Amino acid sequence: MIYKRNKTFHTDVTVNGVRYRQSLETTDWKEAQRRQKELIRSILEGKAAGPATHGSFASLRLADALAEFIKGRVGRVAPRTTQIDRERSTVLERIMGDVPVRKIDAKAIRDYQDKREAEGVSGRTVNLEVTLIRQVLKRAKRWSVIADDVVNLPESRTVVGRVLTQEQKRLLFATAASKPEWDVAYCAAVIAVNTTCRKVEVLNLRWADVDLFEGVMSIHRSKTEAGHRSIPLNREALAAFARLRQRSETFGGGAPEHPVFPTCEHGIIDLSRPQVDFRTAWRSLVKSTGRKAGEIAAEAAKTSGADAEEARKRAARPFAGFRFHDLRHQSITELAEAGVSDAAMQSIAGHMSRKMLEHYSHVRMAAKREAVQALGGGLIESPISAEQARGKAN
Q: Do residues 227 and 357 share a domain?
């Protein structure tokens, strides 16, 4: 049956004992008939979503559905996964929070992708956010209806992250050491940049994993199984662990089963759980480093008569959005520049993709090429320039 409500045609049909009542979203009678036939065909082919009854999951606003979905997974997924889901849901709620789940179609998802792209967000980030929508729609038994019409954005993945110069690196760590509230992030960063560790590997360390006498730490929680490894500790990493050990002992920690980075909520230390993140502290100290770099460059520019504002922006740019994970690329790059072999790097850093290995192989060769230039002593004059030689080779 087709009927009109507020100038819009609706359908009320029963197929295989299931009643479907919904808007056909048209004011044209012939179009309404066509859409009803299309709906019935989709139902018979198993491609139509089930009816969204009042109070069902599909009838919820996306914001409420996300909250229910994430809450239902607590205890069944890792705490870090729950945290990431909540962070992504914040963005989804801002743009689509009031949309009922049953009304989310392929066009709504394309509109969301367009808005996020316009905000300058990477394709990979948007795809991960859409994955959360997909999980909610699967729970509502509605994903299969639109799955063929939803296309992920292209992901322009770079091989590695950013790497700071030695001067920039020193400024970053001097800034991190300047405030007590950044101390945990500072120690974690020192460990990461001296061991190639990922953040998840550092934060999940327990004191049983750290042998301060032998100077070795063992990674048991990593991104992949290949990430499980033992890493020798240099003087700076040992100093960071010694500082963290003193901190742990001040609040009764330090037992083998205790986390090196225990959870701290509202000033209360929980020795039973590792800290999930220190994103706020990290972002704060990175922004502060960028400001300091800009101020230093601006002063130097004024002295030399150059454009101070342009110098400020140029000096601060390397720190904009500098991630904790970039410290891993920093340390691996420095190993490659020191001539460390692929096998040795993998034993320290754990799994690395072929693209990453190829990148670091080029880094190693560039460092060697720069080093051999120091061997020259004006012993012979070339009949052609280096540029001409490269041109002929090409």
A: yes
- Cα 63 to Cα 324: distance, rounded to the nearest angstrom: 30
What pLDDT band is residue 387 in, cutting at 50, 70 and 90? low
> pTM higher than 0.85 for the full model?
no
Residue 271: name the closest of 259, 285, 282 by CA. 259
Range of the domain at 207: 162-372
Place of tokens 């590695």: 160
For residue 90, pLDDT over 60 is answered with: yes
Q: Say yes or no to pLDDT of 262 above 90.
A: yes
316 in a structural domain:
yes
Answer whether residue 216 is part of any domain. yes
Is 215 domain-assigned?
A: yes
C-alpha span between 392 and 394 (Å, rounded): 5
Residues 130 and 166 in one domain: no
Query: What is the pLDDT at residue 152?
Result: 93
Burial 213-243 (b: 16+ CB within 10 A, else e): eeeebebebbeeeebebebebeeebbebbee
142 with 182, same domain: the answer is no
CB–CB of 260/211 below 8 Å?
no
Give the pLDDT score at 351. Answer: 75
Check pLDDT > 70 for residue 49.
no
Same domain, 233 and 349: yes
CA distance linking residue 233 with residue 243, whole number of Å: 14
Say whether pLDDT at 119 is over 80.
Answer: yes
Radius of gyration of the CA atoms of the chain, in A: 28
Residue 385 lies in a domain: no
The helix (H) or strand (E) run that includes residue 75 is none
The region that residue 7 occupies, defined by phi over 0 for left and psi between -120 and 50 for alpha, beta otherwise, is left
Residues 345 and 274 in one domain: yes
The first and second tokens of residue 138, run together, are 């699967």
